[in-house]
Amino acid sequence: MQLETIREKFPITRNYNFQNHAAIAPMSAPAAEALIEYAREMSEAAYLHGTYYRAADRVRAAAAKLINADPEEVTFVKNTCEGINYIANGVQWLTRDNVVTTAMEFPANIYPWMALEQRGVRLLRVEDEDGRIPFDRIAAAMNNRTRLVTVSAVQWSNGFRMDLTRLGELCKEKGVLLFVDAIQALGVHPIDVRGMNIDFLSAGGHKWLTSPEGTGLFYCKRELCEHIKPPEIGYMCMKHPFEHDLSKFGWHELHDDARRFDSGVYNLAGICALGASIDFLLEIGIAEVQVRVKQLTDLLVEGLRSKGWRVHSPRTASEWSGIVSFSSQKHDTDKIRKHLREEFKIVVAKRLHRLRASPHFYNSTEEIRQLIDALPPG
Ligand SMILES: Cc1ncc(COP(=O)(O)O)c(C=O)c1O
């Protein structure tokens, strides 16, 4: 698809040079149209022309395709944390079990596990070395009481990408569960839960999936579903959700797939929008999106370095991502961030005292050059 056609699907390009997809991304036009369509239909006909639950099943299938799972292994969440909590509070922990993670995680992937100290479960955090988590340190942190490893596929601060294939192999070999917070990767980097031996995954839709806040997807490997006790019990998690004769079925007759994590009705408006964005990304092809984001971020890194800015993001073939973190001792990063927005309508973020740019596949090389040109020498 031509870049111009793609950019038409992102109306924000008319107003801003937006390079902040690691924060709250703009909604794609297909997502916005799906929301409008849902609102129109539900305001004019309620459910009388048919139910949106069929559409939700199509979105479930598309989400499953995105991560190479079966549709039954996927359900919807309102954010990444919700899926993290399903597992943190659903595993049958034993006192003195431990969970291994990294010291770089976004707090969403820390607090739910930290709170397990109430149940005698320890959280072990592996320190980084110059912005990357050495694989051997994770292996060394694991011991015979390690039940689960939880990592972000891509780190929020500097964009370090974890080698999930290698980590999945290690976890499988040691009989340890693997949870992946995929919000900073999904929509740019191919994630294959089967090929990577990922047991659980959660990702909000509002970053690289260009969907509304309040949407997201959650994956639980089929054979593990029945071993996880859903922290919330409703009726949609039941095999017979609308059964009123309670003498026939008990509360424990839960779905034996990912729907056991559902409680009541779905956020159908959001799910339709999420589905429209996922369909669009799949139409382009995730491999194609990834190639484009690599080209754009390579151009950015090169331009930043040649202007004297220090780039903090690992950029090797297995570690790069769509997040580029940079700084200069000569400048106040907050002032620069404001100046870029006010003078040039260029949107980047400030994280951990550094500037963070995160362009998506629809940004143009011209927009990357504009950012480099707008920055003072570092
Ligand atoms: C790695 C990571 N996980 C999770 C989140 C957000 O979590 P939630 O979707 O629960 O708001 C962010 C947001 O910046 C993030 O970078």
Write the layout of secondary structure elements.
Layout: H1 3-8, E1 17-18, H2 29-45, H3 53-67, E2 74-76, H4 80-88, E3 98-102, H5 111-114, E4 122-126, H6 135-141, E5 146-152, H7 164-174, E6 177-181, E7 200-204, E8 216-220, H8 222-225, H9 268-284, H10 286-306, E9 310-311, E10 324-327, H11 333-344, E11 346-347, E12 349-351, E13 354-357, H12 365-374
Parallel strand pairs: 1-11, 3-4, 3-5, 5-6, 6-7
Antiparallel strand pairs: 2-8, 7-8, 9-10, 10-13, 12-13
The structure holds pyridoxal-5'-phosphate.
Pyridoxal-5'-phosphate (PLP) binds next to helix 4.
Provide the helix percentage: 25-40%
Mean pLDDT: 97
| Class from secondary-structure proportions | alpha/beta
Q: Which segments are poorly predicted (pLDDT under 50) over 5 or more consecutive residues? A: none
Main β-sheet: number of strands, strand sense, barrel status?
7 strands, mixed
Instruction: Find the count of extended strands (DSSP E, 2+ residues).
Output: 13
Bound molecules: pyridoxal-5'-phosphate
Distance between the termini: 37 Å
CATH structural fold name of the largest domain: Aspartate Aminotransferase, domain 2
Radius of gyration, in angstroms, nearest whole number? 21 Å
Strand content: 5-15%
CATH C-level label of the largest domain: Alpha Beta
> Rough shape?
globular
Count, helices: 12
Explain how this protein is built.
- 43% of the residues are buried.
- The mean pLDDT is 97.
- α5 links the parallel β3 and β4.
- The chain has 12 helices and 13 strands.
- With 378 residues, the protein is α/β, with parallel strands linked by helices.
- α3 packs across α9.
- The protein is globular and about 75 Å long.
- Strands 2-8-7-6-5-3-4 form a 7-stranded mixed sheet, with helices on both faces.
- Helices cover 35% and strands 14% of the residues.
- It has 2 domains: 106 residues, Aspartate Aminotransferase, domain 1; 252 residues, Type I PLP-dependent aspartate aminotransferase-like (Major domain) (Aspartate Aminotransferase, domain 2), CATH 3.40.640.10.
- Pyridoxal-5'-phosphate binds next to α4.
